[in-house]
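Hey, resending since the last one bounced:
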Amino acid sequence: RRMNYVQLVYSSPYYDRSRLRSLYSDLCVTYGSPVSFRDDALTQVSWYGGDGRGYVTLRYNNVNGRYYTTLSFGR
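The structure tokens again:
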């Protein structure tokens, strides 16, 4: 058995996009240019995984006054 999905979430009480920018830069170095980018009320960027079958998604959003940076890996 292998894991099909992993999600890591960091929560903060204040607006700070530096974590998002740092993760974005690291992911671009690792996976290249993103395959999709959405920047509206919810910022979300996705890449294909290293094996060409999976995906990596980085998301930043505000829910009830808390700010969440979410990194997801899936197949």
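The mean pLDDT is 85.

Sorry for the duplicate.
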